[in-house]
Amino acid sequence: MQSTVRRGLAGLVSLFVLLTLVAAAPASPSLTIRTDKGRVAGTSAERVDRFFGIPYAAPPVGSGRWQPPAPAPSWAGTRSAKAPGKRCLQFGGDSGPGMSEDCLYLNVYTPADRTNRPLPVMFYIHGGGFSFGAGDSEDGSRIAEANDVVVVTINYRLGVFGFLDLPGLSGRGAGNYGLLDQQAALRWTQRNIGAFGGDPGRVTIAGESAGGHSVCALMSSPPARGLFSGAIIQSAGCPSHTADQAVARGKKYAAAAGCPASPDGLSCLRGKPAGELLYSSGGFVGGVLSGPLPVSGGPELPLPPSEAVRTGRAANVPLLIGSTRDEVRPWALPFARATKEQYERAVRIEFGPEAEAVLEHYPFSAYGDSYTGTYAMAALWGDSSVFYGLGGCQYQNLTAQFASRQPRTYFYQFDDPHPPVLGNLPPGFDPGAAHATEMPYLMPSAASKLLSPGQRQLSREMVRSWGAFVKHGNPAAPGLAAWPSYRAGKYMSLLPGGESRALSTEVYEARRQCAFWNSIDYDWLPVNPDQLAAQAGVSLP
To answer: Can you give the residue ranges of the Carboxylesterase type B domain (predicted)?
Structure first.
């Protein structure tokens, strides 16, 4: 009898252990997921499940052009999610099979071995000056796999399709259709990310360049409140246009498109094929400092984002913010052939009564013989933050404004002196840690294959730090250098070969000459670099 009881108890114990192991073991998720609009079937590779080309809003075509995004229609059966959706129309290409007005799609990367425990989510917004790029240009697989988080990347309307502002164009959203697309994608994430293993209560919005500008705009947008719990701003700030500026740009575009500046002009624009609208938008897209931006003054963005941050009316969430050491150096190439006199003339044009003081701090003679004008102009532009407040002293001041209300604010500078740069560069030109050169360290790309062993180590560290921030609101990760908050008077200098370290913000201020820049009044650069060079009489390369 006792033997029978013992065997019975042993069986119960074995069953209990088996059930415990099954419950603790990673799930084997299906590659078919049910969303609120229908089922999608993805693919799996390298321990990451991928679901591409999921519609998060209705195609903004026909009567939907220049209107807020509408709900996506439902579909029957299972929709293939194995290839990205078409990219949003962008100037510089044709409207062939790779691009379309029908472009409001997103992509989800989720760990293949995820458990039933909901995972934090990184919602990544691509850059490209609000005029170029696509969600499929940002590969979230490495961040997802290395950190056990879910990554969402999105398309949003670009250029004249996403940021045109004209009176009467629509009842809501004029000038901010792209921003409203981002919010629609965030709402899709809130409704659906749980089915992909994500936690809708832990969504970190992140972006680089225009994607980072978008993050600041979303933090400043009342309709976006509650859709995210953390933010990452890479090489971006909080610029915007006023409604008057945006409408002036819109009227100029309408004229370029051959439509009158009258109510009839709206019908004219709406009646044009998308390809014609795109062809006419070169001036609207403009250059690095003359392209579209979010528009303040409406319900989507009542205040300029910079004012919302300064006055404490932006979302108060943990923030990771930083830039690259040499953000604007390639943009200063129009000054490659500048003489000392031409360089000084350009500084006087830009800085007016403060020019002589600027030249004392940034003399032409301090920057060698090769590309002297470029390096000199890039140094003063980078330190003064005149490119929409990007990098340098104004950028540090912006970080301090965030940190004054949010203790979990973390500041970094990407300081790798020689990151890989694809494309043709002038012989002998050193681009340094230029704008966007940190991206191959975070997301796989062609440039990622060119990383040296020390740079690959930095890449692993950055991936872990970004993942730690998404998971905990703090970029510190076990085994890595300590990463104090900005309130501790520290910033993180990111360097290859295990050399990253926290430095005093006083070091940053000294290297950027912030005592000088904070002592004078000046505005952001009002023209593109080639225009300023031409005004100074420089012979362009």
So the answer is: 31-516
Strand bridging mode 198-208 / 43-45: unpaired
Region class of 532: left (phi > 0), else alpha (psi between -120 and 50), else beta: alpha
Task: Domain ranges for the chain, please list them.
Answer: 32-317, 322-535
What CATH fold (topology level) applies to the domain 32-317? Rossmann fold (3.40.50)
Q: Domain 322-535: state its class.
A: alpha beta
Environment class of 509 (CB within 10 Å of its CB; exposed 0-12, middle 13-18, buried 19+): middle
Choosing from 327, 344, 350, 438, the catalytic residue is: 327
Who's near 116: CB < 8 A, 6+ residues apart? 27
Q: Which amino acid belongs to residue 493?
A: S
327 catalytic per annotation: yes
Give the active site residue among 126, 213, 241, 435. 435
- Predicted confidence (pLDDT) at residue 301 exceeds the cutoff of 70: yes
> Quick one: the chain helix, strand, coil %, rounded to 5?
40, 15, 45
Q: What is the 3-state secondary structure (H, E, C) of 197-254?
A: CEEEEEEEEEEECHHHHHHHHHHCCHHHCCCCCEEEEECCCCCCECHHHHHHHHHHHH
Write the single-letter amino acid at 123: F
- Section 159-185 average pLDDT: 96
Q: How confident is the model at residue 186 (pLDDT cuts 50, 70, 90)?
A: very high
In this predicted model, what pLDDT tens digit does every residue of 448-483 receive, in sequence order?
Answer: 999 999 999 999 999 999 999 999 999 999 999 999
Annotated catalytic residue: which of 95, 131, 209, 448?
Answer: 209
Residues in the chain: 541
Taking only the tens place, the pLDDT of each residue in 65-84 is 999 999 999 999 999 999 99
pLDDT score at 3: 42
State residue 263's pLDDT score. Answer: 78
Q: Say if 32-317 and 322-535 have the same CATH topology.
A: yes
* Per-residue confidence (pLDDT) for residue 203, from 0 to 100: 98
Please state, in angstroms and rounded to a whole number, the distance separating the CA atoms of residues 324 and 458: 14
What's the predicted TM-score (pTM) here? 0.94
Percent of the chain beyond pLDDT 90? 90
Q: Is 365 a catalytic residue?
A: no
Burial (CB count within 10 angstroms: exposed 0-12, middle 13-18, buried 19+), residue 355:
middle
438 is catalytic: no
Angle at 438 between CA 459 and CA 304, to 5 degrees: 135
